[in-house]
Amino acid sequence: MGSRKEIEDRLTVGAQVIDAEGRVVTPGFVDAHTHLVFAANRADEFEMRCSGITYQEIARQGGGILSTVRRTRAATEGDLLATAQKHASWFLRAGTTTIEAKSGYGLSVDAEMKILRVVQQAGKTTPLRCVPTFLGAHEVPEEFLGQTSAYVELVIEEMLPLVASHQLASFCDVFCEPHIFDQPAAGRILQAARRWGFGLRIHADQFSCSGGALLAATLGTATADHLEHTDATSIKALAAAAVQPVLLPGSVYSIGSRRYPDARAMIDAGLAVVLATDFNPGSSPIASMPVVLSLACTQMKMTPAETLTAATINPAWSLNLGGQVGSLECGKYADFVVHEASDYREIPYFLGTQRPTMVFAQGERIG
Ligand code: NIG
Ligand code: FE
Q: Does the predicted model carry a pTM greater than 0.85?
């Protein structure tokens, strides 16, 4: 790193020179909230939402997460891996070189383990770095309908120990909402996960301000994600506990809501805001960080510079990878993107057309 002169003086014989021809070069994007592994898609529900039925109504009718769970359980590990590899190519093509990838469409011991093995294989067989998160508490499965506490027991007593002993996840996440896993249930799971050595993340306050962010602050989780309905008191608590907010404007946009999280209040409170895609077949079929950056600028009034920080170094720290990725510095992986732009503001500005000219992961050109 340095000026042209400094670098040219240090070039060794045979060094590879990449001429970016005046284009903008950034670190590879770090997408700290994705649901990478799932079978099929939900374009049918997308069409239903276009005719006015809400995301939550579809879930109440047995669609939503549970419809993906049925198909993910039925899929073979090989089929899931092939689909995950296709999704990985979408991330890489848009300039993302590191993702966090959650399980959560299995909701049984075997199916959750199957998904986490696929995450591991996706990371090994593609240039995309994948940080695995166990999200066994993503929804209550059909066979536990009306018996949420029995399912919470299964997660705590069987799934967490097994995932920990196979070292298949770095983090544990819970979908905290009153009608899914309420604050006490989410708290029990996350505390058990901490005892097994997992880092903690939480889906909080997506549909109501229901104590999810407060729980994150009490536990001192690494991140609190979504936060569309988080109030001022909870934002203060997040700041006091240094919990990183992960904001997901792509899911707000895709479910047709207008309720974006209050990014400005979070930045003013001193929080290290993270932007992520929330890539999943329901609420956010978006794998492109430039699209998310654009939404963050226009809908949440973040500046282009703030969005770049929130898409690179801030998420890297949220994944405990701040020393390895997220900025262009000597000693870190050479994950970088040459953008089709001469000014970084063009990245969120030219919505939908942003395609990197070149993508490098660990020094290898991969796109
Ligand atoms: O982060 N809120 C829960 N989970 C996902 C949606 C998953 C789905 O609809 O399949 C989310 O938005
Ligand atoms: Fe999510």
A: yes
